[in-house]
TrEMBL record:
NCBIfam families: aroE. InterPro entries: Aminoacid_DH-like_N_sf, NAD(P)-bd_dom_sf, Shikimate_DH, Shikimate_DH-bd_N, Shikimate_DH_fam, Shikm_DH/Glu-tRNA_Rdtase. One of its GO terms (biological process) is aromatic amino acid family biosynthetic process. Residues 6-89 form the Shikimate dehydrogenase substrate binding N-terminal domain. Keywords: Amino-acid biosynthesis, Aromatic amino acid biosynthesis, NADP, Oxidoreductase. Its EC number is 1.1.1.25. This is shikimate dehydrogenase (NADP(+)). GO terms for molecular function: NADP binding; shikimate 3-dehydrogenase (NADP+) activity. It comes from marine sediment metagenome. It is an enzyme of class 1 (oxidoreductase).
Amino acid sequence: MYYSALLGKPVDHSISPALFEMLAETASLEYAHLKIEVESLSELKTSLSSLNNLKFRGVNITLPYKISVIKYLDKIDGAARKIGAVNTVVFKNNKFIGHNTDAKGAILAIEKKLKKVGGNDKIVVLGAGGAARAIIYKLYKRCKNITILNINIKQANKVSDDISVKSNKKINAVKLNNENIEKFLRKSNIIINATPVGMFPKSNEEIVNQKIFNKIGDLKGKYFFDAIFNPYKTKFLLDAEKKGGKVCSGLDMMIYQAISAFKLWVGHDLKKVNIKLIEKRLIKILQKF
């Protein structure tokens, strides 16, 4: 029997237990994945130790702990160190080893559902937290034309410095407000929401005001990705889709990152997993929220 868990706050919206059960079915493994709400950083440290003692294989980390968990880890891999955020922890020989599977999950979702990312793309990312760091890290390897919009400009500049410091083309950091959202929606062809705005249960919240979409009009030729998976399509994606934009839910990112985490925890490479079937089954679960 294999065990893993999701640690964060909130976790009620997550469907990860169902997802990992499906992955385990594919590998013919007896498996259980729990979701555990962690109230504080000190409780996070205790939770890691307790789950390790109970012989869990590892944990996924969600907001708000993807950055702060690093201080409790014995080791983190090179990509996670560069990103500055960890979403997957492996328990091995009583050591806590940090990885970032969000980065791979995001780029696979974007390139399989939307388009291949290249040097001529113009990308705007809303947000500068743990999810944004992972997404930007992978995008920057393919495209240098990236702008971060964030309320906290200091936080956005820190992401830019951490990821593009050794490049002659720095990531642009700009204040998140309606004026700049409109400006960069017009200029960009790939638009990414990496904030929690619009996540269940606050599904009616919108990171981009509908008036801005109406003002811009036709969005054909533009691609929209939202790191949120619940709801399956956020208001951000629905509004963009209505105007002709091509959209991708964070559910795809979640599935791909989970496959990578599963391999790290149990050693099974799920090359033959039916992504479309799993996505279809998970959408049905999300529709019950």
